[in-house]
Design brief:
Helices cover 53% and strands 14% of the residues. By secondary structure, the chain is an alpha+beta fold. The chain has three domains: 138 residues, Beta-Lactamase; 76 residues, no CATH class; 172 residues, Heat Shock Protein 90 (2-Layer Sandwich), CATH 3.30.565.10. The longest helix has 52 residues. It is rod-shaped and about 160 Å long.
Length: 470
Amino acid sequence: MRLRVVLLVVATSSLVLVSFLVPLALVLRTFAADRARSTATIQAQNLVPLVTTLDPGSLRQEIDQVNAENRSTPVTVFMPGGTELGPPAARTASVQLATNGRSFTAVTPAGANVLVSVQGLPAGTAVIQVFVPTAQLRRGVARAWLLLGGLGLGLLALSVLVADQLARSLIRPITNMARAADDLAAGDLTARAVVAGSPEVRRASAGLNRLAVRIGELLAHERETVADLSHRLRTPLTALRIDAESLRDDDEMARLSDDVNAVERTVSEIIREARRPTGGGSALCDAAEVVTERAMFWQPLAEDQDRPMTLEVAPGPVLVRISTEDLAACIDILLENVFSHTAEGLAFEIRLSRRAGGGAWLVVADDGPGFPDADPTQRGLSSGGSTGLGLDIARRIAEASGGTLTVGRSPSGGGSVTAGLGPPVQALDAGRRHRRARDRLHLRPRDGAPEYGPSEGTPWSLLGSSRVDR
């Protein structure tokens, strides 16, 4: 918009300057030509008394002296008997016309001939011719045009500066409002637009701020409502706990009590998640640590089902813009899909690598039947009898970090899910936690390479039924 305003002012100023300077330049050229012809006419008229009073010899001397003083405009006198005094010149039709008693100016391609008829001589009529060349007619015009051009460019530059300042004053409030809108779209509900600028922009900024406040109120009400509804589940859970403790079978009582405790933990997690504010900061975690810890959690189940499990984690901290809880939930969803929708004994692998622009790539692939043709990430759509929410939740977690989630096929023909995790906004020293998590694993490099210690910086793999040192 700023460029468009400047271009509009430049176009308007150019039209005004052209409509003003071009006629002025033409007037200056005409004025210069009229001045040169007027000077030549006065010069010729000053010679009229000399032509009528002096003898031919004295007149010749006077004319030679005049030509010596004004070489740019030569003077020639055509006497009645055919004699010419001064520089030789052709006796043109204009000169013949002037002998009839007319004084005028004849314009030629080379310049202008000022002809003055002198009557009253005994032998007839004499004609005084003053030749004004084209260079003399346009003397000073080029300089005047250059001054006009410089003035026009200066005025144009001044208009550009004024237009730029005007555009800045108009665009700055709009830019601030757009920046606040982008922050709100990114989840920062504390962003507010500066109410400044024209009345229309001030009104739009105030409306955006009211909208942001309203969104915050609605989200806060929604979070509190979810938390309250979840809290209501504690009453029936307490009744279940009392019923479980009243059982006489100790094993059954312990089993039911554990189930009740698991449900209570889930409810508490739902309440904490519902009360967790959105926006207001950037989450950050070490993806390598989270992936390693979740692999440790799922490793015993993989061993119980005879599933060869492969884990590859990029060396060093891999920082991503996502919270530890969300990334752990995303990994659990992808691994739970593997265990739920593939047969026991089928292998799967987990790979974590760095993205070129920051962040990480998380790939979970298996040797199962793969995904159907329909988009498995579509919310509520499942061909395996589940709720169809898992992959949609994983997709939203990946997109919230600034990345993507794609579904494809593994090299073995099974399913493959690739989650792109966005880079962190600010740096976080997660190297210590990453090394501590990797030290808890006793790992071997792939392809039968010799074993390395954690300090070697090579990718690690959990192959086959390799055990985890807890």
